[in-house]
Amino acid sequence: xxxxxxxxxxxxxxxxxxxxxxxxxxxxxxxxxxxxxxxxxxxxxxxxxxxxxxxxxxxxxxxxxxxxxxxxxxxxxxxxxxxxxxxxxxxxxxxxxxxxxxxxxxxxxxxxxxxxxxxxxxxxxxxxxxxxxxxxxxxxxxxxxxxxxxxxxxxxxxxxxxxxxxxxxxxxxxxxxxxxxxxxxxxxxxxxxxxxxxxxxxxxxxxxxxxxxxxxxxxxxxxxxxxxxxxxxxxxxxxxxxxxxxxxxxxxxxxxxxxxxxxxxxxxxxxxxxxxxxxxxxxxxxxxxxxxxxxxxxxxxxxxxxxxxxxxxxxxxxxxxxxxxxxxxxxxxxxxxxxxxxxxxxxxxxxxxxxxxxxxxxxxxxxxxxxxxxxxxxxxxxxxxxxxxxxxxxxxxxxxxxxxxxxxx
Length: 409
Hints:
Blueprint: H1 2-35, E1 40-41, E2 45-47, E3 55-57, E4 60-61, H2 67-75, H3 107-125, H4 128-133, H5 142-149, E5 152-153, E6 158-161, E7 164-166, H6 170-177, H7 186-192, H8 199-206, H9 216-223, H10 238-249, H11 253-269, H12 281-287, H13 290-293, H14 301-318, H15 329-339, H16 356-360, H17 370-378, H18 385-388
Antiparallel strand pairs: 1-4, 2-3, 5-6, 6-7
């Protein structure tokens, strides 16, 4: 008993000591900075002297840290981190992030071709809107993404703003791109499901003895039966030619699975390799199988995508604000445009019968700087009820139309 009380007294003593030292540091730093007030640059961001276009977060100093301030920091063992640019990968923001989905030859015609046969299946699986969204080229709002990451916390997976935390949710994913927030857990389906299609074998067979490569362009050439060319030399029999042409006209289950694998890797996961990675074959095979298509519940792709987005943002902000990590950063941009109208074209009235992504993705970007975006987020007032409910209040897709307010406790 005495030991427990002694431990509690020690913890209380440590806490009081920390509190005293914190107050002492705050008072000393306040006095030192007030004494050197004229040395401050009172702006949110400013250029670092003699460093060209490099910027730092303020407030900071016009030149070197005044001796009084540096002495306080040294005495209290505080590291000088005034130069926000140090160790940060700002150069990576000069171009579009490397994993941002770019145009791929023959993708849009492939979407149209496969939709003609499997469009109704996509609707049942809850992936129709997300696939159609992949046919829209989304410009990268680099200044906005760079500014937003300054507020992103990898501990809470949220923007830490003055009024509190704001984070992408499963309802946001459903409202923006249409993926279901509920259903069969993806990992369990992989562990228990055995599907008729084997994309690894199909890729080897179709590569005809050559090294099986799975980069995006080659994948479409290998699996899009609509691109099957006539046999060279004209030596094939009439029956063989007719069979080849018939195969080119039809979208098989194998082609559908290959199409889905491409879509998952390029647009949902945004793979680092710019290839269709084998680790996602099983998910595509599951989506293309009758077992999953005829199930009462779709695959829960909303949690799958949200997890990849969280992981991507975690790496971005913990690895020097470098955006070149696999993951759907484009969804984060759509989310920012959804919740912060100041970042998108004004006057847009959001239709109720379509996903937010289909309406926001085609818009031209505003001409704003990272500093301007940072200031909007830094000064953002508390959201109104209507702003919070921009996704929650929508009735499309249909699984968002369920009124759960009467069940709220």
